[in-house]
Amino acid sequence: MRFVALTILAVSLAACATAPAPPETGRPGGLRVCPGNVSNAPLTDNSGRIRSFDPVARIDGVSLLRAPVEACVSSGFGPRRGGASSFHEGVDLYTRTPRTIVASGDGVVEYVGSQRGYGRTIVIRHNSDLKTRYGHLSSYADNLRKGARVKRGEPIGRTGDSGNATAVHLHYEFLIRGRPVDPLSAGK
Ligand SMILES: [Zn+2]
């Protein structure tokens, strides 16, 4: 029974159900929260833009994009309720249709492939402690291989709904020594 319970927990951690919402993407002036019921939504101004949003996080001397795709935030980081109560270990960036995802910082591709719940996934290592993970992709960039060096802004794939996803979006994580932190607020 213990094994079964752990398995269910692992699946719920990766669960990434996101209700479809109208696209609010590609507009200048900051990152928006999608209209509708968004769990753990960051504070926004009257036009739906995240308050005091800095698009670049600086952690241990590494600069990382907080949103490596043109999208709106359809789910924030942290505990949330759903079919099963779970902790959302990243942020969901909704794009409605597949859209190009870029590497959020300079680094080395550590993983390209399918992960349970995450579907098509890329992990980039930025230094000994810091990684970013990109989940639910529809496709990978050509020639993207484990061990490849990538530069910030370089296309790595496209958003999709592979794995445990109900809408086309990027599930995006910051991992510091393996622990997830909020991409929208971590660092400076
Ligand atoms: Zn997610």
Polypeptide structure, described:
The protein has 188 residues and is mainly beta. It has a single domain (2-181), classed as Glucose Permease (Domain IIA), CATH 2.70.70.10. The protein is 7% helix and 37% strand. The chain has one helix and 16 strands. The chain has one helix at 2-14, and strands spanning 32-33, 56-59, 62-65, 72-75, 78-80, 86-88, 91-94, 100-102, 107-115, 119-125, 130-137, 139-140, 149-150, 155-158, 169-176, 179-181. A hairpin with a 2-residue loop joins strand 15 (169-176) and strand 16. It is globular. The structure holds zinc ion.
Task: State the gist of this model.
The protein has 188 residues and is mainly β. Helices cover 7% and strands 37% of the residues.
Write a concise keyword list for the protein shown above.
single chain, 188 residues, mainly beta, Glucose Permease (Domain IIA), 9-stranded mixed sheet, 3-stranded antiparallel sheet, globular, binds zinc ion
Please name the CATH architecture: Distorted Sandwich
Cα-atom radius of gyration: 15 Å
Percent of residues in helices comes to: under 10%
Give the assembly state of these chains. single chain
Estimate the mean pLDDT confidence. Answer: 87
The CATH C-level name is Mainly Beta
CATH fold naming:
Glucose Permease (Domain IIA)
Bound ligand species? zinc ion
Order of helices and strands: HEEEEEEEEEEEEEEEE
Alpha-carbon distance between the two ends = 43 Å
Tally of strands: 16
| Biggest sheet statistics | 9 strands, mixed
Helical stretch tally: 1
Shape: globular
Structural class: mainly beta
